[in-house]
Amino acid sequence: NTSRLGANSSITLNTDINGGQWNLLGTALFTPASGARVSVAQQPDSWVVADAIRLVSVDGRVPDIVIDNTDPRNAFVGNWITSTETTGYYGSNLHAIAAGRGGQYTWLTDIAVSGQYQVYAWWNINPGNNSKTAVYTITAAADATPANQLSYAIRPGDTWASIASYLYGSDTLADELQQALNNPPLYVGTLLVNPPASLTNR
């Protein structure tokens, strides 16, 4: 199961295993021109790797977005180095930083279409050397809702039935959802903020 992430969520992963493949961080709402980004922080236990991230549109309307560490839009703080000394990295090389505190690497996203995206990270194969407590932070949108709230971005062709099916797994909850949110118009790109965590048929 994937986790639904809030506007600013952190995930701790053991990057000493599962290298050389895409690893799911969670699912988050991204909107255009929102400053959305993914970062990984330096850790005191071992090396932290910044290699590539991948955004996958949940509804398949947008081709996968891959941002490698070679993208010139990326930014970092600290003594990150580029390396090809290990195996399993994505593309031509990776960035890495030795154990310590204060360093951070950030991938800046370029989202053209609002929606839910699965967020993946890729790191190298380097057992015994990579951090077991690497912390990835996903900032979904500069103006997003608090992390304890859910949001849904209206998509072309959406109806209350399709939204209820996506959020609750049942289109029979359409009327209850519409009433709970005070029947807003379904304009494409509009956010339905904080829908109920659960609904039951009346």
Our Rg estimate from Cα atoms comes to 19 Å
Strand order of the largest sheet: 1-12-3-10-7
Number of helical stretches of at least 4 residues: 2
Which blocks of ≥5 consecutive residues have pLDDT under 50? Answer: 142-149
Report the major sheet.
Answer: 5 strands, antiparallel
Strand content: 25-35%
Helix content: under 10%
The overall pLDDT average reads 84
For the termini, the CA-CA separation is 29 Å
* SSE order, one letter for each helix or strand: EEEEEEEEEEEEEHHE
Mind explaining what this structure looks like?
With 202 residues, this protein is mainly β. The protein has helices at 160-168, 174-180, and strands spanning 8-13, 22-30, 37-41, 48-50, 52-57, 65-68, 75-77, 81-83, 94-97, 104-108, 115-122, 134-139, 151-153, 191-193. β5 (52-57) and β6 form a beta hairpin. α1 (160-168) crosses α2. The radius of gyration is 19 Å and the shape is elongated.
